[in-house]
Specification:
The protein is α+β, with helices and mostly antiparallel strands. Helix content is about 20%, strand content about 45%. The protein has a 13-stranded antiparallel β-sheet with strand order 6-5-4-3-2-1-13-12-11-10-9-8-7.
Length: about 240
């Protein structure tokens, strides 16, 4: 009887240790993905092209700067009608500055960025490590397929399905779901480039699942990390200046 009890206890310990190892492994995978996609202390030039469901195509050029994980600044440089428009995130608060009225207004982090498929949070903030729990739901020969569940109902996406390349942890694809498992949209990561010693996707294609004709393409032209950007860029009082 004693021997049987010892065997049961040993089995439970082994199962617990195995589960911990899996949890630690998947956490490290997500952490590596977030490092690759990190927008912390960066300076970048980007082009965003919005393909709307009515067939119109709207290209935007913009400059992005960040300070730490909680401060982000985006300024549009083209087209002329949008030049000077700015978006600032301070923690959970997002401000949008309109040069035509010389005024900044608070906007939702879950609102559409420039009418495209990216939300303000997609461009300015997405914390895969801290905001979600993680599990490996499938393992392919060259990929991990991860399931992420949001810890907070206020998050833009309740669930995320993430495909990760095994050999270098480069993200391949993300699918975004509601709490009831309805697919909202997906992101395809393409064109991996070296930016100052860091390899990351230079092209992101966000595709609406609700309308096949609607998508947004974000292309990175320049990207520097480890940059100390001017502090004045991360104050509401600095918008428009």
């Amino acid at each position: 009887m004693l021997k049987k009890s010892v065997m049961i206890c040993l089995s439970l310990v082994l199962i617990s240790s195995y589960s911990f190892a899996i949890d630690k492994n998947v956490f490290e995978i997500v952490k590596q993905v977030e490092i690759i996609l990190s927008l912390e202390n960066i300076k970048s030039d980007q082009v965003m092209t919005v393909y709307r469901k009515d067939g119109t195509i709207r290209p935007y050029e913009m400059k992005t700067m960040t300070s730490g994980k909680d401060k982000s600044f985006v300024e549009l440089t083209a087209p002329p009608r949008e030049k000077g428009r700015q978006v600032l995130r301070l923690g959970e608060v997002v401000w949008s500055y309109m040069p035509s009225v010389k005024k900044s207004i608070r906007v939702s982090g879950r609102g559409s960025f420039m009418g495209g498929d990216f939300e303000n949070n997609d461009v300015l903030r997405l914390n895969l490590v801290g905001d979600y729990t993680h599990e490996i739901i499938e393992e392919l020969p060259d990929q991990y397929v991860l399931g992420l569940k949001g810890k907070d109902l206020s998050l833009s996406y309740a669930k995320i399905k993430l495909w990760v390349r095994k050999n270098d942890f480069q993200p391949i694809k993300q699918e975004y779901y509601t709490l009831t498992d309805k697919l909202i949209k997906s992101t395809i990561y393409q064109d991996i480039k070296d930016f100052g010693g860091m390899q990351r996707p230079a092209k992101l294609v966000m595709q609406s699942a609700l309308n096949p004709k609607q998508k947004t393409i974000l292309e990175i032209d320049k990207f520097k990390h480890g940059v100390k950007n001017p502090s004045k860029r991360f104050r509401r009082s600095g918008l428009g200046k």
